[in-house]
TrEMBL record:
Low complexity composition-biased segments: 28-87
Name of the protein in question: Right-handed parallel beta-helix repeat-containing protein
Classification via InterPro entries: Pectin_lyas_fold (IPR012334), Pectin_lyase_fold/virulence (IPR011050)
SUPFAM superfamilies xrefs: Pectin lyase-like
Region of interest called Disordered, as start-end residue ranges on this chain: 19-100, 484-518
């Protein structure tokens, strides 16, 4: 048994904005505006095709190897969702950990309707005469408009570019907020967005794309941080993606200032990621559900920086549930690599208050500089408790910082000693002596006297708890703390801590693990 994802801030906020409610009366403007001009094609040359390899992936240089794992894709209908998946009903407004963004309390002033039985034309878009395709609706969009897809199944391989809302008047694309999700299924990529700003993609189901589910990029403008900026993803369900190779459910390249909220990602490629970041900056991933992903739940590489991964649930997410860093072809870095300084695959990636269950390893610091894993509840990984690796190394042209300055703080780690090889896997070309380990709880459920990872840690830990039952509500199903347990109030305060797994406020001092005692 596994814990269901609880309703979070974003579900509650959806009731007061974020795209309008059923019964709203909005004017429908089907005209075309230069301010909201778009390019839309169904067969763009820039849309990816199915491939077993990731074009951003550089040849591995690390001497440490990872065994390959794969998953068997299920069916592409809503029933393919994990049966104990997220609760999508409205929840209470949270006390701590606000994740609101530029569009949270706004809603469209105009709706452009799309339906499978609609008809494209110069006058389509009203509720009574909807367009049939996203491409036709996008040609009519203006700042402040929402493209509203009615329930049903839509054709894939949609490419949209240069959709530009504003801070005061974003653009929305999606189904009825909190209603039945429209389905885009099959094809190479379901949806590719390029060079977009102030845009919300919401309430959609994406399934059975051969390459990536949703691809959002900067159009190759690797040196322009404004190319794709202010993008929010809310209540998406993306599943059964790829052909077993390195494909992703949500592929992001060159995004700045973005949010991924209350979404669900399952069976995303045999070796890909549920969410793959290449050169992305200033992002927040909160309240998402990841399950049965072959490579990673989340990967951030290619110069990615300042991304917080908080309050998510990750179940059986393959080789590395969260890959902080990775291996990227030099031409894909954003910003471009410098010859006059030190480059890094990733910097300041923060993994906080997540529940991570199963998989080979929950966390990997891979060429990541000054990255943080704090207050996560980690349950029964199958190979390592964490990894410190380097896959992109310096050459005669570019200097790369080693994995360094990592912090592992206030985590609650439950494992079976019989399933673990070494507690911590440390590869070459890293700087493990620069890491810190502070106030974690380590418990080997099958052999409590073998709980301590001290022999494998690169430095001594400050105030660990080892071999003591954490006294969770249920080690097999409910990972909340109980009064009097050793994790309660025994952690280290951190400025990065905002809300716990359920948007509750942390005590002072905080508890260890993802849940504060209620």
């Amino acid at each position: 048994m596994r814990p269901a994802m609880t309703a979070s801030l974003l579900t509650a906020l959806a009731l007061v904005g974020c795209g309008g409610e059923k019964g709203d009366t909005l004017d429908t403007d089907t005209g075309t505006s230069e301010a909201g001009s778009t390019t839309a094609t169904t067969d763009s040359g820039t849309t990816s095709t199915s491939s077993a390899t990731d074009p951003t992936e550089a040849p591995p240089t690390s001497t440490s190897s990872t065994a390959s794992t794969s998953t068997t894709p299920g069916t592409s209908t809503t029933e393919a969702a994990t049966t104990d998946g997220p609760d999508t009903g409205p929840g209470p407004m949270p006390a701590c950990g606000d994740a609101s963004h530029f569009a949270t309390f706004k809603q469209p002033t105009t709706l452009i309707h799309v339906a499978p039985d609609g008809a494209d034309g110069p006058d389509c878009g009203a509720e009574a005469s909807p367009c049939q395709t996203l491409e036709a609706a996008a040609q009519k969009v203006t700042p402040g408009a929402g493209i509203r897809l009615h329930p049903g199944t839509y054709a894939p391989d949609v490419f949209l570019s240069d959709l530009a809302g504003t801070a005061d008047a974003p653009i929305w694309i999606g189904g009825e907020p909190l209603g039945e999700r429209p389905l885009i299924t099959g094809g190479g990529e379901a949806l590719h967005l390029s060079r977009v700003r102030h845009l919300v993609l919401h309430d959609l189901e994406i399934a059975e794309a051969g390459s990536n589910g949703v691809n959002v990029d900067d159009g190759g403008a690797v040196d322009d941080p404004e190319a794709t900026r202010f993008v929010a993803f809310e209540r998406l369900f993306i599943h059964d993606i790829g052909d077993g190779g390195n494909q992703d459910c949500l592929k992001l390249s060159g995004l700045n200032d973005f949010w991924v909220l209350d979404s669900q990602f399952e069976r995303c490629g045999g070796g890909g990621s549920a969410i793959d970041h290449v050169g992305c900056h200033h992002g927040l991933l909160v309240g998402n559900w990841f399950a049965e992903n072959g490579g990673n739940a989340v990967q951030a590489k290619g110069g990615s920086e300042d991304i917080e991964i908080r309050g998510n649930t990750m179940l059986d997410c393959g080789q590395r549930a969260v890959n902080m860093g990775g291996s990227t072809g030099f031409e894909f870095f954003r910003p471009p690599l410098t010859m006059n300084g030190t480059n890094a695959e990733a910097r300041d990636i923060r993994v906080i208050a997540n529940v991570i269950e199963g998989g080979e390893t929950p966390l990997a610091f891979v060429g990541c500089v000054d990255c943080l894993a704090a207050n996560n509840t980690i349950i029964r990984p199958q190979h390592w408790l964490l990894r410190i690796l380097q896959e992109t190394v310096s050459n005669q042209e570019f200097t790369f910082a080693p994995a360094s300055g990592g912090r592992f703080v206030n985590n609650l780690v439950v494992f079976d000693r019989a399933a673990i090889s070494t507690y911590v896997n440390i590869g070459g070309n890293t700087a493990p002596e620069t890491f810190t380990f502070t106030t974690n709880l380590w418990f080997a459920a099958d052999a409590p006297d073998q709980s301590s990872p001290a022999g494998d840690l690169p430095v001594a830990e400050t105030d660990p708890i080892t071999g003591v039952d954490p006294q969770l509500v249920d080690l097999a199903a409910d990972y909340h703390l109980t009064p009097g347990g050793p994790a309660v109030g025994s952690g280290t305060p951190l400025p990065e801590l905002t809300g716990d797994r359920e948007f509750g406020c942390w005590s002072e001092p905080p508890s260890r693990g993802a849940f504060e005692l209620k």
